[in-house]
Specification:
CATH architecture of the largest domain: 2-Layer Sandwich
Distance between the termini: 50 Å
Shape: globular
Number of helices: 12
CATH class of the largest domain: Alpha Beta
Radius of gyration: 21 Å
Number of strands: 24
Oligomer: single chain
CATH superfamily of the largest domain: ATP-grasp fold, B domain
Largest sheet: 5 strands, parallel
Bound molecules: adenosine monophosphate, glycine
Length: about 450
């Protein structure tokens, strides 16, 4: 088979895939990957109660930090492609270890993951490449922080440098709150992740998530999505991992996307290469569309959750071949992303108390679901000893629908979510309000 074909074809064996992770993101990846007839088996480590329901999927319970055991098992299972879902194993260098042992891996090495696991490094990276982003200060002590905060006319955004499970960003309203946040971080609120902090000028505008599949040199863009980070309707309340999403977003028309490619995406790939970083995985650009143009809020080295659950149903069966090509450094760069013409939306059902404290272990009851163009991906679930599905996380289920317009998408998503029940279930009623013409609280 030719590798110069515009449409992706697998040019080496692609039968057994391993996905690492345990969330809705990983289940949606498995669901999209199983569509390809070449795929015989998908193993998920560790997965959750929903993983085994997916066609061709099998869960494996194995410690991914035990390299020797992991590699032995992957050789035994004859794995052709590994897809690493979450940032923590990427930041620990799992991608490097597996590649060194001869596996094809979709997911950057530790060097590429630094774009996510060190915010100060990412900011300096952007500064070098002249990529538009909010003005920032890298701060090593509370004294330094106090000086910069007191000099600033407006309260600055305060960020722990390292990985803090999405909780390390503070958007204070006053200078005092700013100082309090900096003090809390330096006092060890996030352990080593807060040894350094980043102070940033606060910028404004709608946020979009842009995803580029990269092979180290070339890239292909997926449909862009809009996440809903705040817990409550009207974008109020604390930040969460994401309460719902929709894709593609009409915020990015062709011209605006071209601008993002020119000012942000291409310079990022070029700067990675300049730093000798062969980035094979997905680059997630968290952007803010400000009055003066697009700016990078953050980079992530993995798919967004729940953006991934939203986008995967729009992919056709060749998606997994693109992942394999990225893992092998063999993208052509102009492959057709065979995205559906439909639009997609996702609503997340959470446990009461999320993102702070919540209880788990409640049985989940699912009534009559209209599954036509609708998927329910388990985000945080586990099986009880007698096989009942129980809640097992802050974000519990991802309800995703596709249709020809967003009104229809969310009408079905909310009709279906009403068929789901567990103690303390909570969800936002206004996901996709930006793109719905019909919206009522009764939805
Ligand atoms: P991050 O974890 O860096 O994506 O930040 C979490 C959220 O904080 C973002 O999605 C934004 O809503 C907000 N945020 C981060 N940085 C800034 C900034 N410089 N100005 C305004 N809002 C920000
Ligand atoms: N949905 C935002 C994230 O995955 O970081």
């Amino acid at each position: 088979m030719s590798i110069n074909s515009k449409h992706p074809k697998s040019f080496i064996k692609l039968e057994n895939v391993l996905i690492i992770g345990n969330g809705g993101r990983e289940n949606s990846l498995a669901w999209a990957i199983q569509k390809n007839e070449l795929i015989k088996k998908i193993f998920v480590i560790p997965g959750n109660a929903g993983s085994q329901k997916i066609n061709k999927c099998e869960r494996i319970l194995l410690d991914i930090n035990n390299n020797e055991e992991l590699i032995k098992r992957l050789n035994f299972l004859d794995i052709d492609l590994v897809v690493i879902g979450p940032e923590i194993p990427l930041a620990k260098g799992l991608g490097d270890t597996l590649r060194e042992n001869g596996f094809k891996v979709f997911g950057p090495g530790k060097d590429g993951a630094k774009l996510e696991y060190s915010k100060s490094w990412a900011k300096e990276f952007m500064q070098r490449a002249k990529i538009p982003t909010a003005k920032f200060w890298k701060i090593n002590s509370l004294e330094e922080a106090t000086e910069v905060i007191n000099k600033s006319k407006r309260p600055l955004v305060v960020k722990a440098d390292g990985l803090a499970a999405g909780k390390g960003v503070f958007i204070p309203q006053t200078t005092d709150e700013c100082l309090e946040a900096a003090e809390a971080i330096f006092n060890g609120k996030f352990g080593n992740a807060g040894k350094v902090i980043v102070l940033e000028e606060r910028i404004e505008g709608p946020e979009v998530s842009v995803f580029a599949l990269c092979d180290g040199e070339k890239y292909i863009l997926l449909p862009s999505a809009q996440d809903h980070k705040r817990l409550n309707e009207k974008d109020q309340g604390p930040n969460t991992g994401g309460m719902g999403a929709y894709a593609p977003t009409p915020l990015l028309n062709k011209d605006y996307l071209e601008r993002i490619i020119k000012q942000i995406i291409k310079p990022t790939i070029k700067e990675l290469q300049k730093n000798n970083i062969e980035y094979r995985g997905v680059l997630y650009f968290g952007l803010m569309l400000t009055k003066s143009g697009p700016k990078v809020i953050e980079y992530n080295c993995r798919f967004g959750d729940p953006e991934c659950q939203t986008i995967m149903p729009l992919m056709d069966k060749d998606f997994v071949i693109l992942l394999q090509k990225c893992a092998m450094g063999k993208l052509i760069g102009n492959e057709a992303i065979n995205a559906s013409k439909k639009v997609s939306g996702c609503v997340i059902a959470t446990s009461k108390g999320y993102p702070l404290e919540y209880k788990t272990g409640y049985p989940i009851n699912i009534g009559t679901i209209d599954y036509e163009n609708c998927q329910i991906f388990d985000s945080g679930t586990r099986l009880s000893e007698n096989g009942d599905v129980l809640t097992d996380g802050g974000r519990v289920l991802s309800i995703v629908c596709q249709d020809k317009d967003f009104d229809k998408v969310f009408e079905k998503a909310y009709r279906n979510i009403k068929q789901i029940n567990f103690e303390g279930i909570y969800f936002r009623n206004d996901i996709g309000h930006q793109v719905r013409t019909k919206f009522s609280r009764e939805n």
